[in-house]
Amino acid sequence: MIFPDGLLRRDVAGPRAAFPGGTPGARATPRGGAPGARATSPGGAPDGPVTSRRGAPEARAALRLARRARRLVWRHRVLLAALCCGLAAMSAVQALRPAPPPSTPVLVTARAVAAGTRLTGDDLAVREIAEDIAPPAALRGPQEAAGLTAVVPLPAGLALYPGVVSDGGVLASAPHGTVVVPVTLADDGVAALLRPGDRVDLLAPGPGHPSASRPGTTTSSLARRALVLPTPTHRAPEADAAGLLGGGADPAPVTLVAVAPDEAPDLSAVAGMGAVSAVLVP
């Protein structure tokens, strides 16, 4: 609005707006009311918008919480940075780690098994091992080991394959590269003490080394570290008890041993004479 004095003034509809006939800067007095009262419309409602202060406490609380969170983050910035670095390193290791090699189920011994022991379910367990270290002919399940016998002492966790277990057959229980010779020992008591898996040196009278216990006699070494094998379970001693002449005497026990092929000829030549002595060796 342009006044007579030539000055341009803003027409303010506020509490200090100039009214016609009034003093500039005086407080406006609403019609029908006291000075300072809120102007109302003819319907009784306030002329201007009513500002609600109900959300002010929540806003102040949110502001305080945000400031506190910023202070905590700044105070522990080093720890947070270290934690982020650790998570990044862990993620990198997980991403760069190669995939595990393919595995296969293999039958192993759940506990140590002595040589000559017939395997049962308590002696066996199935383990997943890498295919590249599994024996080519390893047994895969407990049903494959039913009725098998340990040829040699088996430690716990050993993968089972035909070279260390057998079905009770004579040749199947012999280690690779050996032959089996049945021997009648001179002392039946020693034969009864031997167990499958024992190692013995086999000696017999003859040209060779002088005997220390019997001066004037010599003994020859027939086999070194021969492996005592389990006797087949299908052998029936009572069927052989009568003998060829029908006598009632029990036959001498036969011990099965695995020896080197070059030792077999001399050993088999005297094996049935009952003159072979056995010395237990480690």
From TrEMBL:
InterPro entries: RcpC_dom, SAF. This is Flagellar biosynthesis protein FlgA. Residues 104-166 form the SAF domain. Keywords: Cell projection, Cilium, Flagellum. It comes from the Bacteria. Residues 13-56 are annotated as: Disordered. Residues 14-44 have a biased composition (Low complexity).
